[in-house]
Amino acid sequence: MSGSFPSKNLNPVLLEITLTSWILALIASFVLGISKAGLKGIAMVTVTLMALAFGARESTGLIVPMLLVGDVFAVLYYTRHTRWQHILRFAPWMVSGILLGTFLGKDLPASVFKIWMAVIILVSVVLMYWWDLRKSKRVPGHWAFAGGMGIVAGLATMLGNLAGAFTNLYFLAMRLPKNEFIGTAAWLFLITNLVKLPLHVFVWETISWESLLINLKLLPGIFLGLFTGVRLVKIIREAFYRKMILILTAIGAALILLR
User: Fold this and answer.
1) pLDDT score recorded for residue 212
2) Range of the domain at 240
3) Residue 139 has what DSSP assignment?
4) Confidence bin at 106 (pLDDT 50/70/90)
5) 10 Å Cβ neighbour count for 80?
6) Average pLDDT for residues 13-34, to the nearest whole number?
7) I need a labelling partner for 177 at 20 to 30 A (CA). Which of 21, 87, 153, 212 fits?
8) How high is the pLDDT of residue 43?
9) How many domains does the chain have?
10) % helix, strand, coil for the chain, step of 5
């Protein structure tokens, strides 16, 4: 563990960023803002685009500060709809998964890490598509369901910032109305992303002054996405774009493997 803010392990790709990488990152930041504003299910696009722009491992650290910006907005905007009993039930399991994922992923070779990220994305896509097909059926509400989903969500969020599919399944199982779903998820992700922040800084060393400078330059994309997302939440139906997003995300996962 480094005693100071790390930079020695920074991938050279973060120092020499191509125009294509900037375009992908700006699109990713815009989509992240839309997702944090309440359009759940499209966050995997952000993860995929950032991985394509900067690499699988480096992108995990780059995304965390961006997520926190969106989380703060979502908490401020939707906090009145929060259902704290679900956070208290789910968050401890998710934090356990984060800690487990920290040590499982720290020393993975870059090639293996890339494969795991792509696999998690594809599994998430399948899970979300499966949920769409079975949305009229009841998902178990037993504590073991919360525990299992929480640990897997923690692993997924640490290894690839991909907890959304698993947390969505849990909150849908609890039959939360739209605004309560968004408000509760906002606090859950603010808490868990704050847990992840020092782990990325001092254990994985994927957050540095250089990566934070990149985050700063991507803030306009996040804010534009948040502004757009708030308005879309009120008018758009999820079924209209959901399958397209899942297909594009699956293609993105395949591209990560081929990169």
Assistant:
1) 94
2) 12-258
3) P
4) confident
5) 8
6) 89
7) 153
8) 80
9) 1
10) 80, 0, 20
Q: Kindly calculate the radius of gyration of the chain based on its CA atoms and give it in whole angstroms.
A: 17
Whether the CB-CB separation of 121 and 164 falls below 8 Å is answered with: no
3-class SS at 259?
coil
Neighbouring CB atoms inside 10 A of 149's CB total: 24
Q: Report yes or no on 186 lying in a domain.
A: yes
Residue type, 187: W
Asked if residue 4 belongs to a domain, the reply is: no
Q: Does 203 reside within a domain?
A: yes
Residue 1 lies in a domain: no
Segment 23-43 shows an average pLDDT of 91
- For residue 2, pLDDT over 50 is answered with no
Amino acid, res. 23: I
211: exposed, middle or buried (Cβ count in 10 Å: 0-12, 13-18, 19+): buried
Q: In whole angstroms, how far apart are CA 64 and each of 11, 197, 200?
A: 17, 7, 8
- In this predicted structure, the answer to whether residue 250 has a pLDDT above a threshold of 80 is no
Structure tokens that stand for 59 in this block: 């992108």
Output the DSSP codes for 78-144: HGGG--HHHHHHHHHHHHHHHHHHHHHHTT--HHHHHHHHHHHHHHHHHHHHHHHHTTTSPPP-SHH
